[in-house]
Amino acid sequence: MKNSSVVVFSGGQDSTTCLLQAINKYNSVHCVTFDYGQRHSQEIDIARDIAKKLGVKSHKFIDVSIINELSASSLTRDDLLVPEPHMRKNSDLPLTFVPGRNIIFLTLASIYAYQVQAETIITGVCETDFSGYPDCRNDFVVALNKAISLGIDRELVFETPLMWLTKAEIWALADKLGMLNFVKNETMTCYNGIKSFGCGKCEACNLRSKGLKEYLNNKTVIRKKLQSKLYL
């Protein structure tokens, strides 16, 4: 097993799957959860509960609500609509995009990693089932990783286990870790702040349920695809 990691943890499907994998991979796992004024603040409570259930002893909560003051997003403003899949063209930035969010999250997670002497930052960003967030792209993560390592004069590794996985393959990874039902029932991905299967209407719920259905209908094929990607 490797030494120590910090998981950027929201309590959603993706970050929980990353946390489960990290627990199996690292001797020491720290979680960091950000309060950025998200409209469904129960996300913080769910993240806390999941981390406790998984036995994570080091869990840092950081208030970055200034993001809410600087940018308008339907994730942070009650007066903006939560988008449904039919509401956006592929060329548009989604209404749920929070400018600078991952820049701030990964920077602060790196400072925390420096403090606790962790070598790796783990984030559940994904470019394959791309929701249109520019700060979830691999090029962005690689560039920021280099800049931060230079800025703190310490080699940190940004690990993105889900970067090239489809949503169906992310479900397959949770199943491979023996925690499919845990991820299905305990996490919250819904933009409207509803746990587990969510509201069933928003874009996040659509991606999640579509991926799960695809995995359950094609387990053998998707497991093989996942296995090939894990050994790239």
From TrEMBL:
User: Could you say which residues bind Zn(2+) here?
Assistant: C190, C199, C202, C205
Ligand binding (ATP): F9, S10, G11, G12, Q13, D14, S15, T16, T17, C18, L19
- Recite the UniProt cofactor note for this protein: Binds 1 zinc ion per subunit.
Name the reaction it catalyses.
7-carboxy-7-carbaguanine + NH4(+) + 2 ATP = 7-cyano-7-carbaguanine + 2 AMP + 2 diphosphate + 2 H(+)
GO terms, biological process: tRNA queuosine(34) biosynthetic process
Q: What does the function comment of this entry state?
A: Catalyzes the ATP-dependent conversion of 7-carboxy-7-deazaguanine (CDG) to 7-cyano-7-deazaguanine (preQ(0)).
Recorded hits in HAMAP family, A to Z, give:
QueC
* Name this protein carries in UniProt: 7-cyano-7-deazaguanine synthase
Which species is this UniProt entry from?
A: Serratia symbiotica
Q: Which gene encodes it?
A: queC
